[in-house]
Design a protein that fits this description.
Layout: H1 2-11, E1 17-20, H2 30-42, E2 49-52, H3 68-81, E3 87-89, H4 100-106, E4 109-110, E5 114-119, E6 122-127, H5 137-146, H6 149-156, H7 160-179, H8 183-186, H9 190-199, E7 204-207, E8 214-220, E9 223-229, E10 236-242, E11 247-253
Helix pairs in contact: 2-3
Amino acid sequence: MKDCQTQANQLGLILNTLFIADLHLSESRPDITAAFIHFMQQQAIHADALYVLGDLFEVWIGDDEITPLNTQVIQAFKQLTSQQVPVYFIHGNRDFLIGRRFAKATGVILLPEHHVIDLYGQPTLIMHGDSLCTLDVAYQKFRKKSRSWWWQAGILSLPLFIRHKIGQNARQKSQQSNMNKSDNIMDVTESEVITQMEQHQVQTLIHGHTHRPAIHSLEINGQPAKRIVLGDWYEQGSCLKVTPESILLESNPLPSI
């Protein structure tokens, strides 16, 4: 990215990298889908790169499911990547079954769950963020199981209609369970944040998952550090825009449909 930055500066171009998460795209929310398509066509097209940090979909039961929504989203990504805008994706807790078939169809690059990027000279750790919520012991147990190759292989071997039922049941149980959880359990554990940032030797962390957009100041290895939390897209289109000079959390209203 440094070479691109130097070349862009010489040409007088505006540099910006975009981060989004927690869109939870579904057939029941066409307003979010419309906002996403508009974002891809009007904003992301001008970016150096786009990072999607998980929970793009409300639920993803496998790359073999073909729906109007999935097709529309795949086409939007393909249109963007065909214009030489690199797009990177980290799985969330709703779409961890997105796989190579989706990546091939869209041109999106799948990243590991914890990944360090060079963000205009600043080493930056990016992730979905659910792994930071260590106080939610029950969820962490499920997370560990659901990320295993054998569990995913078993789920993906089932017929689509069974996977639909499993997904619906899991979503209902999750909603009921979350209603009984305190705010601190649903949020990140500060000690885990520090541990991850120290292990990856970074002063900046970007993640989603908690739906609590903010820029938090903290101290890592005796130096000032930042934890940037992306917002969700339930009520507005949330986006983090980073340039060599600035960090801006933006919120764009959803269209009326």
